[in-house]
Amino acid sequence: MLTKIGEKFTDFFKKYMPDAFVFAIILTFITGISSLIILEIGVFEIINSWYKGFWTLLEFGMQMVLIIVTGYAIALSPLINKQVDKLSQIINTPIQVYYFVTLLGILVSLISWGWIVIVAVLARELALRVKGINYPFLIACTYFSTTAYVCGLSSSIPLLLNTKGNYLIKTEIIERTISTDLTLGSSLNITILLIYVILAPLLFILIRPKNAKGQELNDLLISKKKIKKEITIKEEAESQKLPFKAISDNLNNSSILMFLICFIGFTYLTRYFYFNGFDLNFNIMIFIFLFFGMFLHRTPIRYGIALRKASNNVSGIILQFPFYAGIMGIMIHTGLGGKLADLISDFATVDTYPFFCAILGGVVNFAIPSAGGEFAVIGPSVIEAIKEIGNGLNEYELIKMIARASMSVAYGETLTNLLHPFYLLLVIPIMGVGVNLQARDVMGYLVLPFILCFTIISLLITFMPL
Q: Which domain holds residue 419?
C-alpha cells in the first residue's frame, strides 16, 4: 500500500517537477508577485530588493562547495575505500543498505548536517557493490536523513536563542537567553529525535520500491559503464612526474611537507576543542575535512588530484545559490517575511500557536531555505506575536511558549526541505556524478515521509507538554 502511494508521488514529480534551477526561477516570480499583491509596493522596489539579496549567500555557497569537495576527497582515499569494501561484505542486500544509510545519515546529522556528505559517498559506494538497489530511492533515503539535524547539536534556531548577546536580546525582543533545556533538551525534542532514529529507517523500508529494474546505479550512468577507477590517484600522480629527477617533483610528492602542514592544522583543532568544547560550525568542519583528507592522501599532488575529481559536479550550487539569495532579498527588504509572521497573532491561540508556527516555518522555507536566515526575518515578529497571545502569563510560562514556537518554526522549516530541492544540492554533487538523474527523480519518494512526519510532529508540538 505505502509502496504504491510512493510510486504515484514519484510518477507525479517526474511529470511535473522541473529542473532545480527552473524551480528557483519560478519561486523568484512567486515571491515577487506575492510582494506586489500583499504589500502593494512598486515593481522596481521588488527588483531592487531581489538584487540586494542576490549576493548574500556567497559565503554560505562557498562553504557548501568546500564541505562537498573536502568530504568527497576523504572518501577517495585508499583507506576509506578499503573500509567501504569491508562494510559491503556485511551490508549486502538492498533493505540493509536503505536502513543503514538512513540510520547513519540521521545519526551524523544529529552532530552536524554537513556530515551528510560522508554518508552520501558511502551510499554511492554501496550502490556500486550491492545489486538490486533503486538508486533514486537511495538518494531520497540519504537526503531525508538530513532533516534530523533540527533535533541535534547544530540546530541553528535553538543555538541562536541560547547565544549571549544575540540580536534578539540586543533589540530587546527577548530579555535573556533561552536555555537549550527548553529547546533541544526538552521532552518534546527528545521524543521527535527518537522518532527519527527508531521509526524513520523502518518507514523507508516499508515504502521502498518493489524493484530496481532500470534504476540501479550502473543503469543510470551516462557513459553506461560501470564506475571503476581506471587509474588510481596514486598512479595519476606518478604519471605526472618528469622523466628525470627534479626538485619540483620531489616537492609535489613530499609526504614530509604534507605531514608538517597537517601537524599545524591538527594542533589548531586540538586547541580549538580544548578551549571551545564540542562546538561544531561549518568552518571548523571544513577545516577538519580538509586536513584529514590531506593526511589520508599523503602528498600535495595526490590531494590536488582528489580535489579535482571531487569538484566535478558542484555547478548546481554555483548557479542556484545567488537566485535563492535573491528570493531571500525580496522576503527581507520588502518586509514580506515579517508580514507573513504577523498573521500568527491574527489566527493563532494559546492552544494552536505551535501548529501555525510550523506552517509559517514551512511556507517561508521555500523562499528562505536556511533556518538561521529565515528566523532572522520572521523570528522577531513570531516572538512578538507569542507575547501578545501569552499576555498575562508569568515569565517562565511565556519563555516556554517562545521556546516551543521557535522549535515549531524549526521543525516546519526543516520538513519542507523534503518538498523542494535546495539542500538536495548537498547530496547530488556526490551521488549524481556521471549519473542521468534530476531532482524530479528523487523528490517523489519524499512526499509520503513528509506527510507522515509533518502530521506526527504537528500533533506532538500542539498537544505534548514541553
A: 2-463
Contact indicator for 449, 207 with CB cutoff of 8 Å? yes
- Residue in 388, 389, 367 with CA at minimum distance from that of residue 378: 367
Please state, in angstroms and as integers, the Cα–Cα distance from residue 420 to each residue in 72, 244, 362, following that order. 24, 54, 11
The answer to whether the Cα torsion of 375, 357, 423, 50 is positive or negative is negative
> pLDDT for 135-177, tens place per residue?
999 999 999 999 999 999 888 899 889 888 888 888 888 888 9
Cell 527552473, residue? 22
Q: Which three cell numbers stand for residue 452?
A: 507522515
Q: Is the dihedral of CA 106, 109, 115, 120 positive or negative?
A: positive
CA 80 – CA 75 distance, rounded (Å)? 6
Enumerate residues 6+ apart whose C-beta is below 8 A from 416: 361, 362, 363, 365, 366, 450
**CA separation for the pair 290, 425 (Å, rounded):** 20
**From CA 103, how far away is CA 447, in angstroms rounded?**
19
Q: What are the tens digits of pLDDT across the range 62-73?
A: 888 888 889 888
Burial class (CB in 10 A: 0-12, 13-18, 19+), 177: middle
- HEC states along the chain? CHHHHHHHHHHHHHHHCCCHHHHHHHHHHHHHHHHHHHHCCCHHHHHHHHHHHCCCCHHHHHHHHHHHHHHHHHHCCHHHHHHHHHHHHHCCCHHHHHHHHHHHHHHHHHHCHHHHHHHHHHHHHHHHHCCCCCHHHHHHHHHHHHHHHHHCCCCHHHHHHCCCCCHHHHCCCCCCCCCHHHCCCCHHHHHHHHHHHHHHHHHHHHCCCCCCCCCCHHHHECCCCCCCCCCCHHHHHHHCCCCCCCHHHHHHCCHHHHHHHHHHHHHHHHHHHHHHCCCCCHHHHHHHHHHHHHHHHCCHHHHHHHHHHHCCCCHHHHHHHHHHHHHHHHHHHCCHHHHHHHHHHHHCCCCCHHHHHHHHHHHHHCCCCCHHHHHHHHHHHHHHHHHHHCCCCCHHHHHHHHHHHHHHHHHHHHHHHHHCCCHHHHCHHHHCCCECCCCHHHHHHHHHHHHHHHHHHHHHHHHCCC
How far apart are the C-alpha atoms of 232 and 78, rounded to whole Å? 9
The C-alpha cell of 230 is what? 581506471
Give the per-residue pLDDT at 226: 47
What is the model's pTM?
0.84
For the chain, the domain total comes to 1
pLDDT winner (highest mean) among 158-162, 297-301, 328-332? 297-301
